[in-house]
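Hello,

Following up on my earlier ticket. Below are the four sequence lines again, exactly as submitted.
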Amino acid sequence: MNASIEDVARRAGVSAGTVSRALRGLPNVSESTRARVMSAAAELNYTVSPSASRLASGRMSTIGVITPFVSRWFFAHVIHGIEEVLQAAHFDLVLYIDEDGTTFQSLPMRRKVDGVLLLTLPPDSPDVSGVRTLGVPVGSLHVDIEGFSSVLIDDVGGSSMATDHLVALGHHRIAMVTLDQHPSVPFRTGRDRSEGFRRSMEAAGLEVNPHLVVNGESTVEGGMRAGAELLSRAPRPTAIFVQSDEMAMGVLHIIRRAGLRCPEDISVVGFDDHELSSVFDLTTVAQPARAEGALLAHHVLDQVQRNAPPQTTTFTTHLVIRGTTAPPQG
Amino acid sequence: MNASIEDVARRAGVSAGTVSRALRGLPNVSESTRARVMSAAAELNYTVSPSASRLASGRMSTIGVITPFVSRWFFAHVIHGIEEVLQAAHFDLVLYIDEDGTTFQSLPMRRKVDGVLLLTLPPDSPDVSGVRTLGVPVGSLHVDIEGFSSVLIDDVGGSSMATDHLVALGHHRIAMVTLDQHPSVPFRTGRDRSEGFRRSMEAAGLEVNPHLVVNGESTVEGGMRAGAELLSRAPRPTAIFVQSDEMAMGVLHIIRRAGLRCPEDISVVGFDDHELSSVFDLTTVAQPARAEGALLAHHVLDQVQRNAPPQTTTFTTHLVIRGTTAPPQG
DNA sequence: CTGAAAGCGCTTACAG
DNA sequence: CTGAAAGCGCTTACAG
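Thanks for your patience. The regenerated structure is below:
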């Protein structure tokens, strides 16, 4: 059915080896020969058999991506960034969803990927050690793992900016909704965002009241629960720093439902710059999810294609001031 | 480095052919032989070389997925559903993002997938004809294409339910925000949702006012623009049927920003049941995105594995009544 | 610049 | 139930 390299060779009057070199643009092929091979291939509508090429060369032209989610804002955008880079490099992206970092241990990828991208898997998860045994370059997102490339963001600095903003507006009773310690959220992320908050509070001479720090389980619903809890505190906080936009949306909903106004009665800052943040008019710390995915892919591609060493890059974040923050009333 | 089938054969004292049969669970292998092969393989930490197996058998154990987006609610959930089914069947999912249905024409998939899933690509897009030349089973989502499996939803019925609900509440001036004719949205979807609206309006003896039908470009921002336009009409509509939840969120935002209340001043119904719909308390028509993806994968897997004929399934939708709809004032 | 040949590591009729 | 052998379709030193 499909033409083989032999068919092309016969038609062009050369050997299979020459066809292989000509088609891949290798040097040491005369221009006239290359031209003859190209047109023979075109006439026969020939494409290389990927399986045969992979078997013979050992190169898979494929990168495996292991992610806990595809439908959450951050992951969806990261995957988009990765795919664009791989598509441009003519690499395939094979997608594995693994919600808890344990189901894979990389066996399904053995001998079929040139590299792996781990999206926010903790260093001690079984998949990470499984991936090591693959013997291919690995990139890790938001988690720094020995021997792997990684792309990080400045969580401490970002949270600090958000908190400083609230302090500068004159807030004193500032609450925080934290990320869950779900396997999908690196321990580091939640810890660093809390750390940035603490540093800024301390620098401002403000107390971090433990009753005003509540876990939001990383979801919109969790944000609603956390928000409800914070609104029941007396006296109520005048501002809330929420460690992710999705949770912040839940908090905003609860504030409105309680008949309070944002920012008049209470200010809210999120983290991410989710696309719905502008709809909610949410002040937030922006991180470039798509660019993070793209850069992670580039790092690993550099290792695969140019034998570059693992690289680590840290992105800075920036504050986007919208309508959910204002000075406290009275 | 990696043990080969010959290594296992030697260790088990059998031929490579027998190892191949034993490991794949084929019949006609004595239990004692199979046991010996299994333990030899385990001792050598052997896994089949995918490239070699694919080359020899012609089976790729891989399904290609072509999608215009990964970060929109519907597509992200569909992909999640697909991945779960493929993972369970031990098939790889290779992901191709193609925003306009023209960049692929399937060449990158040639000879490396056993089947293809097209997410909402119009029948006349270049990728569709490219995919045909692959000669493998194809599944198409939300678009019925000759010779392909497909999964559809009852857009007419769903929109009709939404409209009937508004009519039953007593609304007469009902507006509609339509989906864009972007390549990512099948022509059929927008047309059918408009058709359901028209039928219900007609059945209720109500006029469809062309000034109250506005395009929302399928996005939150487009919904905001469309909403602003509708609010400027005099007299204002008392209810709006919006063909997607993402656009409906934009409409809700504009209503609030204009100082109007929903549902007191104006009712809104969406379509999808996006996870943020509950946060917005949005009445909407629910479609099971994840289940749609899963079923589409099953249909194509049935063709690939059991040589089943193409199948078409239509999902029904249902109305989820929340807080954005109420009888008109006065 | 080009060809002949080995090798990549399996699967699958075919015999027995 | 098992083995020997052909075949899948390339890539890559090695010679020349």
